[in-house]
Give the backbone structure.
Amino acid sequence: MTRQLIPFGALDRFFSDDMMTVGEFLPALDIYQDKDNVVAKISLPGVDPKKVDIVIENDVLTVSGSTEEKEEVKREDYYHREVRTGSFSRSVVLPMAVKGDVAQAKYDKGLLTITMPKEESVKPKKISVHVGE
């Protein structure tokens, strides 16, 4: 069996065509928990935070929005393009029940941080052991 090498740059051209650059993109998303909260961090550089919608429903977090190009450049004039524009939407099932109505969001230097307090029923409870006499 012989292997054929892919010509240099062919893969870049394949992934830079229509399927990756037009209309939608997926921002990077991290989710973790601390003692009292579930925290989501989403990388949104260049996105106007006023154009971001955050919905928490049935323990599913959905973040969506859009960004536009600031200058008009014809598609044919691009040599290489990685900066994403258009709309995005990310939905993720949260690892536990949260209080969506009191969640808070903060946008700083291109990073959106959403802090969602855990429901009391899912927080760890310490139970004392009473020794019988």
User: Anything to note?
Assistant: The longest strand covers residues 60-67. Helices lie at 10-16, 18-21.
